Amino acid sequence: MKAIILASGVGSRLRPLTDSTPKSLLEVGPQTIIDHQLAVLARSGVSEAVITTGHLGEKIERHLQNTRSIETRFVHNPRYRETNYIYSLWLAGGPIDGEVVLLHGDLVFDEAPVEKLLRSDGNGVLVNQALPPPEKDFKALIEGERVGRIGVDVSGPSAFFCAPVYRFSEAGFRRWLDRIGDYVRRGRVDCYAEDALNEVLAEGLLLRPVFFEGFCMEIDTAADLDIARAWANSRPGAGPG
Q1: What pTM was computed for the model?
Q2: Which of 131, 145, 179, 181 is the most exposed place for a label (fewest CB within 10 A)?
């Protein structure tokens, strides 16, 4: 299985920390965010990671040039300042074949949810029913045993916190990527990739919620970073992975 990690963003809400350091290289406990992600993916059986870069991308490449746990390659988004990650995903996804795990490059998480996702069948995304739906992050609208829609603006009694960590079959991922291609050709590159995903979900693509408990959060602000660092430093045996 291959991974795509979206790490092209500027991280403007974390300035001045991200003025000279890409968000994925910020330290969380004994590791950077990207090192934490790659270590978890490698232990979960992922053999290769395609990492999209943009802001300070050369620093990410230099940092990972001696990575031993997993094979890495990079796809640079030269338009990272004017596009959302929908464009980065379109650039990275074309050569991908086989099953895919897709995640945002600013996520910090327990290992167990990722392992559960990768053991599941078909297309899935991580969903937590125990947490209050966050205002600033993705929610998933659950319709029976499927995900009907994903977005920041999703609400209602069947809307739950959705961590943007996906597993897709090759066919499922290709359907999403084909719709993303339609968006790119129409110049719609400033929106979420999930806008395109919601269209193919409405047309029948089956995406199952993989329910999890435990720690998983996106690092968008200095307050988020403090929470993630406290979590990392409190883990039993915390140390480099």
Answers
A1: 0.92
A2: 145
